Amino acid sequence: MGLSTHVLDTMNGCPAAGMEVALYSTDGDNATLIKRLVLNHDGRTDAPLFDNASLRTGTYRLRFDVAGYFKARGVQLPEPNFLNQVSLDFGIAHADQHYHVPLLVSPWSYSTYRGS
Q1: Which DSSP state fits 50?
Q2: 94: annotated binding-site residue?
Q3: What residue segments make up the domains of the chain, in order of their start?
Q4: What are the tens digits of pLDDT across the range 60-105?
């Protein structure tokens, strides 16, 4: 299955449909954009970020537009927002395994883990 992500809006108790996400490869302080996408009705991508054949060992970053998502839902956020863009830096050590990077998020907190 490669690399996938899923975002749940814990403020509203629903998938974060419409959230913008960007995937980067990283090398130290340098980040190279691989793709940008918008999450579907289930808070997921329509296809894996990388399939099994494309996944490579290395370091990556997922950047989630948290403030943009909550503003689009009509949530009144302070300026500046507590959370704007949430960036998760992670490593792929075994390209033959599935890596799932879920994000549980509200305007004031987030958590993540390596899912299945």
Answers
A1: B
A2: no
A3: 3-107
A4: 999 999 999 999 999 999 999 999 999 999 999 999 999 999 999 9
